[in-house]
Amino acid sequence: MKSIAVVEDEKMVAKELSSMLEKEGYDVHCIDDFSEVTETVLELRPDLLLLDINLPGKSGFQICREIKNKSSIPVVVVTSRDQLPDELHALELGADEFLTKPYRKERLLARVANVLRRYEGRSNMLEGPGFLLDRGTYTLYVDGSSVLLPKNQGKILEALMTELGNVVTKETICEAVWGTSEFIDENALQVNLTRLKKTLAALPMKVQIASERGVGYKLLPSDTSEKAPEGEV
Amino acid sequence: MKSIAVVEDEKMVAKELSSMLEKEGYDVHCIDDFSEVTETVLELRPDLLLLDINLPGKSGFQICREIKNKSSIPVVVVTSRDQLPDELHALELGADEFLTKPYRKERLLARVANVLRRYEGRSNMLEGPGFLLDRGTYTLYVDGSSVLLPKNQGKILEALMTELGNVVTKETICEAVWGTSEFIDENALQVNLTRLKKTLAALPMKVQIASERGVGYKLLPSDTSEKAPEGEV
DNA sequence: TAAATCCTTACATCCAATGTAAGTGGTGTT
DNA sequence: AACACCACTTACATTGGATGTAAGGATTTA
């Protein structure tokens, strides 16, 4: 069953949407704490996000941008203002669909189903900044071309991507690669990491592996040096 | 440069669309023979098809269906009738976007760019009935999961898919696999074909490999028995 | 500077993918 | 029916990429 998260401040509308979608067989979750929408959505990991742009507090655009940056969850934007600039802006930010209220029930459902169909099978794709990783085969898609990663390198990259930007301990990575953390020569991990680095360096990737001495590794945007908070990009 | 095929019977509108898209940097090709739209489009292989639903002769719906069955070209449907049933029908047939005239220039361009962006990177994906094949790594996507084919099996499947339903000679396949048709033990091909058959049989695939005695092989829908109406041979 | 940690390189091993070979089974022709 | 031809299967040897191992160099930290 596909799950849908709904972010809508008018409670009446939210309720209506919710029952409409549930009647269609979706698992609906309405979010009504608008202060941490992004976090909640990332935690829920719904198959789709239905997002009202006009919210109290943080703008829906901002939320859309954050979701799109941090996940591959499809976003359908709805709004009461039928204004072209809003639509263009939303699409630019990566929204997958844009609908204006009042929407016909059938149109909404058709568009939602359409978006979901497009994302079908992409469920085991991990999304990183500018690339996709197929968790089944460790095929890496960058810049319109595809490369097959060796299994170990794939598993390491997968482990790092689940904590994008944060440090992953060596123990965690070992477990992800060899299935257990009973003592495995950390050198083996080291060598595989070096190999992964070399592989990534040969591709037009916008990320880079950084090591945290004594702890583990993390994935970072490649142009940003670790120490220098000088605002370049 | 992305190419777009335009199918629109009102010449004025077609011209306007064409210049608008060209100004945006697309390579536009207007199709004005409406009797063989599908064939023309499949030959042109544009990056996107802009399709008017209201055509003289064959219905745009029919064309949309055919294109979607025989290729993975994204289709944007436009119409002058703003009728919900049309929209639902088009989306059901696999249309990627639906717009009603009169459309704002910016909206059309934004939607077109959005669709093109979605298909980015899918350029080296071969599409078959119910599955996708990545020509770069020979990753096969079926039914929401992915499998990595051995290179030779991948190359053979690729060769067969380019002539979906038609026979491909053994020589052609050999060339596709080993790069040359200087004499290579046909047995090698045979063995690899057997292996591919076994691989496909283990997956929920809707196609099957059939052999044509003395000639070569072809890809067929798996439920169809080989025996054609007696009239031929 | 010394110790800890991280990185690089080279080499040995292993395993999946492939090629080879020999034999079986089916099909069409005379 | 007998034969030739082609398609298929199976088993085994070979190969090459991926991995693990080991040793030594580089870097960071105290």
Break the fold down into its secondary structure elements and pairings.
The structure is a homodimer of 233-residue chains.
Chain A: E1 3-7, H1 11-23, E2 27-31, H2 37-44, E3 48-52, H3 60-70, E4 75-79, H4 84-92, E5 97-100, H5 105-119, E6 125-128, E7 131-134, E8 139-142, E9 145-148, H6 151-161, E10 168-169, H7 170-178, H8 186-201, E11 207-212, E12 216-221
Parallel strand pairs in A: 1-2, 1-3, 3-4, 4-5
Antiparallel strand pairs in A: 6-7, 7-8, 8-9, 10-12, 11-12
Chain B binds a DNA duplex (30 and 30 nucleotides) through helix 6 and helix 8.
Overall geometric form of chain A: elongated
Strand content of chain A: 15-25%
User: Which topology of the largest domain in chain A does CATH recognise?
Assistant: Rossmann fold
Number of helices of chain A: 8
Q: Greatest contact pair?
A: A-B, 30 and 30 residues
Helix content of chain A: 25-40%
**What's the number of structural domains of chain A?**
2
Order of helices and strands of chain A: EHEHEHEHEHEEEEHEHHEE
What does this protein look like?
The structure is a homodimer of 233-residue chains. By secondary structure, chain A is of the alpha/beta class. Chain A has 2 domains: 3-118, Response regulator (Rossmann fold, 3-Layer(aba) Sandwich); 125-221, Winged helix-like DNA-binding domain superfamily/Winged helix DNA-binding domain (Arc Repressor Mutant, subunit A, Orthogonal Bundle), CATH 1.10.10. Chain A is 39% helix and 23% strand. Chain A has 8 helices and 12 strands. In chain A, strands 2-1-3-4-5 form a 5-stranded parallel β-sheet, sandwiched between helices. In chain A, strand 6 and strand 7 (131-134) form a beta hairpin. In chain A, helix 2 packs parallel to helix 3 (60-70), helix 6 packs across helix 7 and helix 6 (151-161) crosses helix 8 (186-201). The longest helix of chain A is centred in the last third of the chain and has 16 residues, at 186-201. Chain A is elongated. Residues 224-233 of chain A have low confidence and may be disordered.
